[in-house]
Write a structure and sequence with these properties.
This protein has 3 helices and 16 strands. With 217 residues, the protein is α+β, with helices and mostly antiparallel strands. The protein has one domain: Immunoglobulin-like. A hairpin with a 2-residue loop joins strand 15 and strand 16. It is globular, with a radius of gyration of 18 Å.
Length: 217
């Protein structure tokens, strides 16, 4: 089997495992068996809104520089209270530098929401927030954009690093992915970017773990 085929199979397997760990976006895989366009129409009639959200997460590499997370996830909720309900969904799945899947479209009751955290499923790295706020309106499909978080480390044995956050537009590749699956619904998308909370730049402090064959300290 060719290496490129093996790589595609591996990304498909990991993507399915990632979807199992995070909640499904619940729009592209409707349990009612309806086509996606019809499912979205039913959701909107039920006094809910549909949200399109993405995330781009870059984290430090051991040898220096940064690497882009292949399986980012975001958590959404109405309050930072850890006991309150949240919805955690996978967003863009990146393989060989290209979009291979997208799950960041979900339904929520109307109201004010927070993007509570962003994480990387394949490395178990997480960055708590809240990072941004956004509004969901009943009967509306809203594109709130993509949260970008770049974490640059201070070196191999450094505990210091820095992060930069920004809000970007949903990529043309993601929109093409969605239009191919729900062409009718995507003509009604309203673009209302999330509002970032706090300073875009911050200093982070991490614990350096020293590991050997006997374990980690």
């Amino acid at each position: 089997m060719k290496p490129t085929i093996l790589l595609a199979v591996w990304f498909a397997v990991v993507a399915s495992m990632t979807a199992a760990r995070a909640q499904s976006g619940d729009i592209l895989r409707p349990e009612d068996g309806l086509p996606v366009d019809e499912h979205i129409a039913r959701v909107l009639q039920d006094h809910r809104g549909v949200v399109i959200v993405d995330a781009i997460l870059s984290t430090p590499k051991i040898g220096g520089g940064v690497t882009r997370c292949a399986f980012p996830v975001v958590s959404l909720g109405q309050t930072p209270d850890k006991h309150a309900p949240t919805k955690t969904i996978g967003v863009s799945v990146i393989g060989a530098g290209k979009l291979t899947a997208f799950n960041g479209i979900t339904s929520l009751p109307a109201g004010e929401y927070l993007l509570l955290s962003i994480g990387c499923s394949n490395t178990n790295e997480g960055y708590g927030g809240p990072h941004a706020k956004f509004e969901v309106r009943a009967g509306e499909i809203v594109d709130i954009g993509a949260l970008r978080l770049d974490h640059e480390g201070g070196g191999l044995f450094s505990k210091a690093g820095k992060t930069h956050r920004s809000v970007e537009g949903i990529s043309p590749e993601v929109m093409a992915f969605l239009k191919a699956r729900a062409p009718r619904a995507m003509t009604h998308v309203v673009r209302r970017p999330m509002t970032m909370l706090g300073s875009p730049d911050s200093v982070t402090h991490t614990i350096v773990r020293r590991c050997s064959i006997f374990g980690c300290l």
